[in-house]
């Protein structure tokens, strides 16, 4: 099918790998900022959160992003990237552009918020 809508898997993979590097770099910076032992007790961590809340939140987001990127890279390898996991239809190109790690088409994502 040469209709111009087939996802360019090589480009997607490059994009995801570049994004991954970006996050890893950011995480490394955050870890440097958090260069203190993190309290295991959440109640004790409240005051720490005042100082490190943003960095900790970024860290958690980064971990989720990395997991999503790894999953997307795995789907590229398996040849299922850009295919909705709910209905099996191709995910809209614009949606994939905006959210390269998405696993659902616009309709399915909207169906359950
Ligand atoms: Zn779908």
UniProtKB/TrEMBL annotation:
Residues 79-112 form the Zinc finger DksA/TraR C4-type domain. PROSITE patterns: ZF_DKSA_2 (PS51128). The keyword Disulfide bond does not apply. Residues 14-76 form the DnaK suppressor protein-like N-terminal domain. GO terms for molecular function: zinc ion binding. Keywords: Metal-binding, Zinc, Zinc-finger. A zinc finger (dksA C4-type) spans 84-108. This is RNA polymerase-binding protein DksA. It comes from Roseivivax halotolerans.
